[in-house]
Amino acid sequence: MIIGTRGSELAIVQSNHVKNALSKISKEDIDLKIVKTKGDKITSSQLYNIDSKGLFTKELDKAILEEEIDLAVHSLKDVPTELDDDLEVVSVLKRESPNDVFISNQDWNELNNNATVGTSSLRREAFCKYHKKDIQLKPLRGNIGTRIAKVIDNEITGTIMAEAGLKRLGLTKYVKNRFSIKEMTPTAGQGALAIIVRKDSVNKEIIQKLNDYISFQETLSERTILKELGVGCQWPLGIFAKADKNQIELFSTLLSPKGEVLKIITLNGYLKDSEDIGRKAGKIIGEYI
Predict the structure, then answer these.
(1) What is the pLDDT of residues 134-192, one digit of tens each?
(2) Is position 273 annotated as part of the catalytic site?
(3) What distances in angstroms separate CA 98 from CA 10, 15, 22, one per listed residue?
(4) What does the DSSP 8-state code read for residue 173?
(5) What is the DSSP annotation of 37-75?
(6) β-bridge partners, 75
(7) What distances in angstroms separate CA 133 from CA 103, 111, 114, 154, 259, one per listed residue?
(8) Above pLDDT 90, what percent of the chain?
(9) Cα–Cα distance for residue pair 48/61, rounded to 1 Å
(10) How many CB atoms neighbour CB 29 within 10 A?
């Protein structure tokens, strides 16, 4: 089996995690193949200023369809809700932390007006404006190491990242503050890894054994909102679903780009109905966009 992956340190760590898990249940040889994506090549633009659909996945999708690789491992937050008809998300691994964190030498709650926070996320920008209306926001792209280095070198006061990636790379020592889900609601699928294959893949059955049902249902509910809205990265929208036994709670915050609260909703229901709950939430939020 050949696993397709982006070439970043985090992507390779995540793909090796899947490789190791597959090696325990498969007798096949498993190798990694690095595929460079359009998103890896663009470093000078805020992601929400360009067509971001499939920015980090399209080339890997093509490689699967052309059978150059057997599967691709992605951060689920990067995967579009609409896939090619011949592809599917066959497994979502047990989710790591969904929370955002603040990387800085200064405490988030003590930032002054001269503080500069770097981010390429419209959602994070909007939440910054909601909490700290007078801090300076700067565009910031690059891999995790590059962004941390800019903080260490005092090019910026701090940056906001997904805690999951830092945990996977063993870099949590740089975390100054951890935001609660309500303080900075994450993007749909944050913290989860997804495996994409061809629908007719001979490896599909064994790869499905890596699926974590609870994580799959939680992220399905979250991503169904995006599918209903068709907004992707183009609105400051935070979504988080949490399962508790056979129940699920879906929480979502929609902000304006200026950080104004447009709508906050919480819906509850049965875990098995997670997609329907996401669809209902999407219809409610859609009235405010």
Answers:
(1) 899 999 988 999 999 999 999 999 999 999 999 999 999 999 999 999 999 999 999 99
(2) no
(3) 16, 19, 24
(4) G
(5) -HHHH--SS-GGGS--TTTTTHHHHHHHHTTS-SEEEEE
(6) 193
(7) 19, 11, 12, 21, 8
(8) 87
(9) 21
(10) 8
Residue with token string 């997609």: 275
187 burial (CB, 10 Å; 0-12 / 13-18 / 19+) is: buried
Q: Is 245 left (phi over 0), alpha (psi -120 to 50) or beta?
A: left
Q: Extract the tokens encoding 252.
A: 């979502």
3-class SS at 213? helix
Q: Is a pLDDT exceeding 80 seen at residue 50?
A: no
In 54-148 the beta strands, taken as DSSP E runs, fall at 71-75, 87-92, 100-104, 116-118, 136-138
Domains of the chain with bracketed CATH? 1-94+192-211 (3.40.190.10), 100-178 (3.40.190.10), 212-289 (3.30.160.40)
Find the catalytic residue in 29, 61, 70, 78: 78
One-character DSSP codes across 217-239: HHHHHHHHHHHHHT-TTSS-EEE
